[in-house]
Amino acid sequence: MRRNATVTAALVMIAGPALAAGPYGAIAYSPESDNSAAVADQPTQEDAESAALKSCRDETKANPDSCQSALWFKNACGALAKDATSSAWGTGWGDTQKIATDWAIKVCQQYGGTDCKLTVAVCSPGGAATIPSN
């Protein structure tokens, strides 16, 4: 029995870091199709941006290349806000979802939005995404 416990412990130690949540998150957005995607808990900035882009492209069948990396963040929250009546949009990040959301709305307004609303927000670590219902 002792041998099995040692093997199990060794496997847990090897698998542990791979299973641990990472500190990076990202948001991708396609202004053309109005699709967005958010990910969290990725091990690197590159992984976070790649995962968000892949998710956005999977939802943007007509022109997947219109998706772009809109924001990445580390140990924080990120948000995307869009204007309901124009093409204005903005992103923001911060220590809380509220800070990220407020910043994204402010940036959207700076780009001419008059009715900017939260589209998606996500926090890392933790990975809880908020997609508001309209």
Question: What do these coordinates show?
Answer:
The structure is a single chain. The protein has one domain. 35% of the residues lie in helices and 35% in strands. It has three helices and seven strands; from the N terminus they run αββαβββαββ. It has helices at 2-19, 45-59, 97-110; strands at 24-30, 35-42, 68-74, 76-83, 89-94, 116-124, 129-130. Strand 6 and strand 7 (129-130) form a beta hairpin. The chain is flat and about 35 Å long. Mean pLDDT is 83; it is low at 1-19.
Please sum up the structure shown:
This protein is of the alpha+beta class and 134 residues long. Helix content is 35%, strand content 35%.
Largest sheet: 4 strands, antiparallel
What proportion of the residues form beta strands (DSSP E)? 35-45%
**What is the terminal separation in angstroms?**
57 Å
Helix content: 25-40%
Query: How many structural domains does the protein architecture include?
Result: 1
Mean pLDDT: 83
Q: Give the beta-strand count.
A: 7
Please state how the strands of the largest beta sheet are arranged side by side: 5-4-6-7
Note the run of SSEs as H and E.
HEEHEEEHEE
Unreliable spans are: 1-19
Taking all Cα atoms into account, the compactness measure Rg is 18 Å
Q: Which geometry do the CA atoms define?
A: flat
Structural class: alpha+beta
Number of helices: 3
